[in-house]
Amino acid sequence: MFKQMNHRVYALPLMLFIFLAVLFVSAGVYIKKEEKSARISKAQSVAEQVMISLEVFSTERIQAVTNLMRTWPSFEPNKKDWFNAQSMSLMGMQRGFSSLVYINADRRIEWVATPPVAAKTRISNALIGKPMAAVGMTIDAVTETFTSTLTFSELTQHHYILIGRSISPQEPEHGYIVAGFDVQTILGVMLGELVGPQFNFELTAQEEVLFQSGEFVSDGTQITLPEFQFLERPISLSMQSQLSPYNPGMLVIAVGLLMSVLVSYIFHKQLKGAVRLSDSQQRYVTASEASLDALLIYQPNEDDYVLVESNSHSAFIFKGVIEKLKAMTLAQQAQFLALGDILTKVAHVAKTGTPYEAYVAVENKEITPDWLKVQVVKAGDNIAITVRDVSERFKAQQDLAHSEERYRRLVDGMRRHFVYTKKSNHRFAYVSAGVEQLLGYEPDDFCNNEPKFVRQIPDETLEIRRLIAHGQKPSPYLVRYANHQGRECIIEFSDTPILDENKRIIAIEGIARDVTEELALQEKVTFQANHDQLTGLLNRYAFDATLRNILKEIRVVDFLDTGPLKNEISLVKESTGQIQPTIQPQTSPQTGNTSKESVMCFIDMDRFKLVNDSCGHPAGDKLLKEVAGIFENHVRSYDLLARIGGDEFCIIFKNQCIDDVKKRLDNLLESISSYRFFYDDKMFFIGASIGVIEINANTKSAESLIKAADNACYKAKQLGRNRYVIHSDSDNQNAIDDNENSLLQILHRALQHDGFELFSQAVMPLCHKNASKTTHLQHYEILLRLRNEAGSLVSPGLFIPLAERHGLMSKVDMWVVKNTIRILEAHPSHLDNVGKVAINLSGITLGDDVALQKIAQLIQSTTVPAEKICFEITETTAVTNLNAARDFISTLRDLGCSFALDDFGAGMSSFTYLKNLDVDYVKIDGSFVRNIVYDPIDRATVTAINNIAHSMGKKTVAEFVVDEATTDVLRELQVDFGQGFALDKPKPLAHRVQWRVKLASA
Asked: Is the pTM of this model over 0.85?
């Protein structure tokens, strides 16, 4: 029988292992086959995406070069400058060009344009004047077909593709344009973004490898696409998905075999344990008999339990009554021994399996013990109860517990406090249990090792001990401890000296309380008062205060270097009569030297408003936090960084001169330029305009410093944004500031005292060439003019951006609307001959609900019919503030006003936006109209805009009509209206309305 059991112990686990091993090996083989199919599918999909991306890239660049040729000026005096400007703009908008070359009709190189950012190029201006062959290709025919050449540069070790053709086959005297592309750089960027490191791939052209990543493995998963065109060159793409470093099939087999061994081993152990169970039971019986506790085994019997087994020590504890107890049920035993509701507790243990333990007072005089320790546990289907005589120990513990409980209730009832006693040497002799709640240390541990837990003692420790030694109670003081988790806790002690009859100190008693949260709250309030809640940087209030301190420190350093004191000033007596320490000179942590100068940078984020308007304020907040993180990476720990406005930041580089800071600012601008902000599947480019000014002993005040830095920041924006401008105190700089301030004052006075002038320019119908102008109702656009103190007109290009920068544009718009309506109301006879009066509105007004309400009230309260008022908004403004534009247009159209979309085609150029904007007129941008007679591209563009606008039920207006030939072409295209010097020149609105009155009276 034993041999048969031993055979099963080993045979059954072996059979289980064989079954599981076969199962997991089969699964692994299947997974490996599936993985190979998935790799082929993945490589095919990614390769097709790469092919599409390369074809799109090629088409866009070839189209861009074609557009450059189509817009080639016929009468440009300096074609090289025009070509260079257009090329730099093109390469700035579309990456990938390594060069653009202009070759004259004599096949000589006139100019070479290279990208504004760092790029590897094999062609430079050194080739100017050389023949066409110097660029590496020759264009034989004057056609509209591009010639393409693949070449390899030994200098850059890169392949280049050159494409070129004549600028105009009809006008060969314009010459040729050749565009160069750095193949390795383009493919490296595009394939790195699209493919990733998990693929091996190779691009070849003419049996030359253009780009390669990884090495192909011959496992049947490599795919090769048919040849496709890239920059007019046929190329071939091969791709293979890399094999996972963890082979799933083999991993499943390995893990499965390991699990099979483990399961079989566990099963073997269980069988082996079952064989040994009988031996264990015998040993258990032996151990229970040797136990010093009474062990009683009970078996359930309906709602009660009966005793089925007991050890020998049971007879010793229940001497004289053991036989009686054996004959009773558990309920009867509990009643006999006066054990209370022990039956209920036993039933709970049987139900939940949770052990029960209790000390029970025995009132039956037939047994010796007075106190029993009873433990109840569940043993399978039965209940095991152990009983121990604890009479002597329990009585002593109970007496002590009663005594300690009274004191504990008093001391431990104090929340976040503990009572302590110190010896005369200030070592702790006793602390209450509250110290464990506060610090996590047991009282004895704290008394013995208190110095180890201290992080910082108060500075006035010697004075506290002196007062206690003289029997005086000191003021409460703070000690910083490290709790059991290593965190800092601040405890406030209130010491009371205990003296003997001779007035000598014998002990110190007191109460300590935890003030950590209280002080943390105070620090939090202080932090919030001095920091920006969004970015965590210093706010404007804290920045101003710190800047003033820096100015004081710099002046102290200058005084120490130039005054009678050479080292430091120790004390200065203030006018109040108090002696206070002076400000110590600022010291650099790196050099240990003081400095008499620092540098402040005023930073204004470029294109932040576009993010806010496009995605909402949550996106703007996210952008500000990320930008603050970029700034923090470019300042040192002792530099100053603050957010002082919506999208305005300030940095103070301490102990640095202008020359030291320039390199830091270059790195900062590079980081900002390379940063991309993503939100709701949208990507934004941002920039930073920075005004830089030196802080030195000659700096007058913090206010003048910030103003000067702000002006320099504004100049950085004027110069093209994402750059820094260093403030200069030169006369020219001051003159520029004075001119701007003077113009701003003129602008303010014009708003207060009606200093603007309203001009107008007619918008003429084009449908009838020979029709008299007086047979149609007038349609004209209101233009705004401003005169300076000398009486000459100020260009709107100067005062309009200034008004926008200083938040005055909404007021300017309201002035134009009010005064236009006022003049029209004053000339009703002129109003009868008016069809539409067009008034321009800025983007700021378009998003201003208050301005909308004021304009609506003006329209409702005036005698001028609303249908004669037409508001013009630019295409870019409308698209940027699309929701606001819709609400604005809807509100005023309900009152009868009409709307025109100005400069259409110069901005977003999306007919989808045109479809979604309820406008009546579409004003075609003048850049398409002025060359319409000679440029077929411009003509096609105007035709498309005109036809689509008409199909939507909108009328069209052509801007910049400069001559009669342009007018005739527009009539031929059936454009509804024209505007320009060929039709009417701007004149004061007052002259226009008075002329009409005189004409009517005549």
From this structure: no
